[in-house]
TrEMBL record:
Major localization class: membrane
Compartments in which it is found: Cell membrane
Organism: Lucifera butyrica
UniProt-listed PROSITE patterns: ABC_TM1F, ABC_TRANSPORTER_1, ABC_TRANSPORTER_2
Protein name according to UniProt: Abc transporter
UniProt GO MF annotations: ABC-type transporter activity; ATP binding; ATP hydrolysis activity; ATPase-coupled lipid transmembrane transporter activity
UniProt GO cellular component terms: plasma membrane
Oxidoreductase listed as a keyword: no
UniProt domain ABC transporter: residue ranges: 332-567
SUPFAM superfamilies: ABC transporter transmembrane region, P-loop containing nucleoside triphosphate hydrolases
Topology of the protein relative to the lipid bilayer: Multi-pass membrane protein
One Pfam family cited in the UniProt record for this chain: ABC_tran
Transmembrane segments: 20-46, 52-70, 131-151, 157-178, 238-264
Protein's GO biological process: cell redox homeostasis; glutathione transmembrane transport
Length: 576
């Protein structure tokens, strides 16, 4: 068991221990029930008085009722322990994923999402399928061995051999036969679900380019591979169960072989022989689940590694110093800032130095890949920078709590995510406790009022998956309304009009102009027209700051900004 998996299990050890004891008493009651029942049946053949059987009859009633009570209590406690374990795993997963949102897009989303969900589902059984069965089997072995020791030591040895064979040797063999099936099946499931998600999301493009048939063939091939691996698992499960039953039968034959001479020697009675055999048979109830235990343990370890890998999506963030909370409004200052992604040896941002004064409007422009969006991610605390300084007032950004910082930042990006809920809930995401008047004012300032009034359900209109019921401009207006409602002192805009037609982009920018009023604003954009109202423009090229100034100053220098601006003007004139 990995250290991380052990750390999830350890806090619930008391509940798990209680579940193990209750499971042991359940098996113990079952063995007691079978033993007393065997005694009554065997003794009845000798026609004893009812008084002689009265204790055994009471024992049957007691063990029958206690088994039911212990089983119910064991199920209740074990499920409670499982849910406690599950809650810790989910908290760990969310805590690992939430700070690393940008890294989540680096993999295939369908494969990644299914991988994480299935990992959590597999790990919740580590107690029920591994820890509980082995612990109960050990306790039952001790109790059954003490019982057999009252009659014969060789029978104790036979019992121990049977338990070891069924609980350890046979599971090891099953795990050996499984080989790499666990990891291969894990990858095959991820591949299959990735193809399904890609197909659903890209069905329009697949149909338009007549590629649906090829995609279907890939899905069929991936599904066939997954089915073959699933069948192998089912066969191994059946083999494990059958092998455990065979070992149980041979152990009973061995004990019978050892007990019969004792009956002839009158060291034990025939009634004792019946009791011994049925008690031993009942005790193997604790061993039968162990056939697949090591296979389940392998699945759990694979799932745990998958969750632990989430933390490796990006470099670990710098340690935070609690209690550091800048008082807003504050200037944002970068000095000799350098940053590179974990898997890159090239600086994405190199020796960057600039200042955003409180209430200042600053535009960040440059060619694609210059590092503009990366700069926004650094300011939001998504990535740790390697060297230099990035400060909010008197505090170094990497020393501050990123959650505390983000509470004072409003963001509008080019890919605004609209949740599949109502317009009201999508806007209130920024500040759930906001009142009705504040919500209406934010919608009005974002030019959403006319749209909402046209809709039959108004604010309660469902937006569809990722806002598919809305146009691109309407989705951006919802993002602007969110930012207005949040009323944060810092505003970051990352290509807010990208992909919009010129008329819609102009309407969206009108709403953004209202949003920027009185806020420290950083606007990342490729669109160089309309920047005359910005206090300062920063020009990036290959991660370096090559120019800065207002629009008039930059045009007069005829540097990179002038070249990009002139190229856009030429394109506009050509299109006209």
């Amino acid at each position: 068991m990995s250290r991380k998996l052990f750390s999830w299990v350890l806090p619930a050890w008391k509940t798990m221990a209680a579940g193990i004891l209750l499971a042991f008493f359940t098996v113990f009651s079952g063995a007691g029930l079978m033993g007393t029942a065997a005694y009554i049946i065997a003794a009845a053949a000798l026609h004893p008085s009812m008084e002689a059987l009265s204790v055994a009859i009471v024992g049957v009633r007691f063990f029958g009722l206690s088994r039911a009570v212990f089983r119910y209590a064991e199920r209740y406690i074990s499920h409670d322990a499982t849910f406690r374990l599950l809650s810790r795993i989910r908290v760990f997963l969310y805590a690992a994923v939430e700070p690393q949102i940008p890294a989540a897009g680096r993999g295939k989303s369908g494969e990644m999402l299914y991988g994480l969900v299935s990992a959590v589902e597999e790990l919740k059984y580590v107690y029920l399928r591994v820890l509980n069965p082995y612990s109960v089997a050990a306790l039952v072995l001790i109790a059954a061995a003490l019982f057999l020791a009252l009659f014969s030591s060789p029978m104790v040895y036979a019992l121990i051999v049977g338990f070891v064979a069924a609980g350890i040797c046979w599971p090891v063999l099953i795990r050996y036969l499984a080989g790499s099936t666990v990891s291969r099946r894990d990858r095959a499931r991820g591949r299959f679900h990735c193809l399904l998600v890609d197909t659903i999301r890209g069905i329009t493009e697949l149909t338009a380019y007549d590629a649906a048939g090829r995609q279907q063939e890939q899905i069929a091939a991936a599904g066939g591979n997954l089915a073959r691996l699933q069948k192998k698992k089912v066969r191994l499960t059946g083999l494990a169960d059958a092998g455990s039953q065979v070992i149980t039968s041979y152990t009973l034959w061995a004990i019978l072989f050892l007990a019969v001479p004792l009956v002839y020697a009158k060291k034990i009675s025939g009634i004792d022989l019946a009791v011994i055999l049925l008690v031993v048979q009942s005790s193997f109830e604790a061993v039968l689940p162990l056939g697949n235990a090591l296979y389940s343990l392998a699945e759990s370890r694979t799932a745990a590694r998958r969750l632990e890998a989430v933390q490796a999506w990006t470099a670990p963030a710098a340690s935070r110093k609690p209690g550091l909370k800048p008082r807003y409004p504050v200037p944002v200052e970068a000095r000799s800032l350098c940053f590179s992604y974990r898997d890159s040896r090239i600086w994405t941002l190199e020796n960057l130095s600039f200042t955003l004064a409180p209430g200042e409007r600053v535009a960040l422009v440059g060619p694609s890949g210059a590092g503009k969006s990366t700069m926004v991610s650094l300011l939001l605390g998504f990535w740790p920078y390697q060297s230099g300084s990035l400060r909010l007032g008197n505090f170094e950004l990497k020393d501050c709590d990123p959650g505390e910082i983000r509470r004072h930042i409003a963001v509008v990006t080019q890919h605004t995510h609209i949740f599949n809920t109502t317009i009201r809930d999508n806007i209130l995401l920024a500040r759930p406790e906001a009142g009705w008047n504040e919500l209406e004012q934010a919608a009005e300032d974002a030019a959403l009022t006319e749209l909402i009034e046209r809709l039959p359900a108004g604010y309660d209109t469902l937006t569809g998956l990722n806002g598919r019921a809305l146009s691109g401009g309407e989705r951006q207006r919802i993002a602007i309304a969110r930012a207005l409602l949040k009323d944060a002192p810092l505003l970051f805009l990352d290509e807010p009009t990208a992909g919009l037609d010129p008329l819609t982009a102009r309407e969206v920018m009108a709403g953004i102009d209202k949003l920027m009023a009185g806020r420290t604003t950083l606007l990342v954009t490729h669109q160089l027209t309309g920047l005359a109202g910005m206090d300062k423009i920063l020009v990036l090229s290959r991660g370096k700051l090559v120019e800065q100034g207002n629009m008039r100053e930059l045009l007069s220098r005829q540097g990179l900004f002038y070249e990009m601006w002139k190229l856009q003007q030429d394109r506009c004139n050509w299109s006209l």
